[in-house]
Amino acid sequence: AALAGVLLFVASRILRLQVIASVIREAPGEAVLIALTMAAVDLLPIPTGVAIGIGMSLLHGVWITTRTQVVEFVHVPGSTIWWPAGPHTVGQPMPGVLVAGYSAPLLFANAESFRRGLLALVDRKRDLKLVVLEANGIAEVDYTAAEALRRVIEACHAKNHIVAVARLESARARHSLHRFGVLALL
Prior knowledge:
Elements: H1 2-14, H2 17-26, H3 28-43, H4 46-66, E1 71-75, E2 82-84, E3 97-101, H5 111-124, E4 130-134, H6 143-158, E5 162-166, H7 171-179, H8 182-185
Parallel strand pairs: 3-4, 4-5
Antiparallel strand pairs: 1-2, 1-3
Helix pairs in contact: 2-3, 3-4, 5-6
């Protein structure tokens, strides 16, 4: 009876029902991960269930990374701030300038969608002179993504557009762009 009491006490500390209810309401996809992990830990040996939960979480992270889209930014009047365009954003595009952001690591898994998305924004703009990649959200760049970015830069140069990268804060990403020769093209 004492052991059962201790186990129930531990279970009540681990199983936070209010948090789970909040996740179900606000993030149903993550709630599915919780339910599948709980089922795996319950039905399989604990190390196997935990490994399955970790694997599903990693796959979820990869899925989010590959679904990231290039976003156009607009200039907030009276400031030096550029903000992602949206229904509640007070801002406007600047003639001849495209500022686009990407909030994920640039990797082989999302390199092609990044390239297509950025070139689609470039193709929609008339009288474009300057293309700025707002790179604050880019923490890493691998070889395949650097090649995709190089192709974007070359396509822009062929149309006489200047290309720049702004706010590349990640030292790893900056080093990768230097190593792969992308910074030399800017």
